[in-house]
Amino acid sequence: MYEMTYDGKEKDDAMMVVVVPELKLRARDTKGDYAKLPVYEVSEPQAVDNAAAAVSSVVEEAEEEEREPSVPKLKCRQLFCRWVMYLLLFTFLGVLAAVFFKWVAPLLMDKEVIPVINWERSTFSTPVLAVVLFASVAVFPALLLPTSPSMWVAGMTFGYGYGFLLIMSAVAIGVSLPYFIGSLFYHKIQGWMEKYPKKASVIRLAGEGDWLNQFHAVILIRVSPFPYVVYNYCAVATNVKYGPYFLGSLVGMVPDVFIAIYTGILIRALADASHDQHSLSAQEIIFDILGFAAAVATTIICTIFARRRLSRLQMEEELLLQ
Question: What is the pTM of this model?
């Protein structure tokens, strides 16, 4: 039972109302009798001090809330600043790309690219060049050599259609050879992965779960900035099956292949413009800049998504182990 007592007291020519709570509690024992507990009352001076302290704390909390921005407003401000930063970054990249395409690229074309293209045309026929490019993309990963230049040449020579088919057929062999070669050095690769547990924890995700989980993990690893040639050999040590590894690698390599082909086509367009001694028109420059920006943005978005997804999978794996 609660009883409230209201007392009025004049202090400094002002009326103050003090609320003093009184709590009375009765307990009943098992025999049915009642025991009355003593009633504690708070004296008036103490009640006045407590009330003043409570009012002061409430006022201070209200002032702090007014000074500090609310959480939604803070998040909106951070999001706005982030988008402004992205806009300024892309604007800077666009201006830099325009300067490159207008002045730097023609100079590089004359000194480096055009001599290579002329040598390629005079040395190899189109069928022989296709065989050379196919062999380089298929064999270079096993030798830990980069394949991007060969993909650029495929884009310059064969375009999107035939270039994509040529590169993807070679990639199928390029990801398979290191997998089977790495199985011969299974224990050595595992020993290397034990020396670098943080880096190895990412690729170990591909060996967890069922066939579909391994397939998804391999796609994310291929899209992420993890080194292509390194994962080709390390994949077998994660106990990932060949089926999800092979198909996941093909699907995950599609964005990189298209960007490489686009880069080759862009180089070819710049080389043709430089060889014909005419500068690119404003429409061509805008088209090239937009295509380049779209390719860069796609790469960044895919990379960020893959890294976040891999981090989430890694955290879930650690929680399960705990």
Answer: 0.61
- Total number of residues shown for the chain: 322
Structure token digits, residue 148: 């991007």
Minimal CA–CA distance to 260: which of 173, 170, 178?
170
**Contacts (Cβ under 8 Å, ≥6 apart) of 35:** 26, 27, 28, 29
What would you report as the CA-atom Rg of the chain, rounded to the nearest whole angstrom? Answer: 35
pLDDT tens-digit map of 268-300 = 877 777 666 555 666 666 766 677 677 677 777
Predicted confidence (pLDDT) per residue in 246-276, tens digit: 999 999 999 889 888 888 888 887 777 766 6
What CA–CA distance (Å, rounded) separates 40 from 36?
12
CB-CB contact of 166 with 151 (8 Å):
no
Q: What angle do CA 130, 135, 141 make, to 5 degrees?
A: 135
Determine the 3-state secondary structure of 147 from DSSP.
coil
Residues 6+ positions from 141 with CB-CB distance below 8 Å: 147, 174, 175, 177, 178, 228, 229, 232
CA–CA distances in Å: residue 257 to residues 41, 168, 282: 82, 8, 28
Long-range (24+ apart) CB contacts under 8 A made by 130-139 are: 130/157, 130/158, 130/166, 133/157, 133/166, 133/167, 133/170, 134/166, 134/169, 134/170, 135/170, 136/170, 137/167, 137/170, 137/171, 137/174, 138/170, 138/171, 138/173, 138/174, 138/177, 139/173, 139/174, 139/177
SS3 100: helix
Instruction: Kindly state the tokens that stand for 49.
Output: 């001090």
Single-letter code of the amino acid located at 142: A
Residues 6 or more apart whose Cβ sits within 8 Å of residue 56: none
125 in helix, strand or coil?
coil
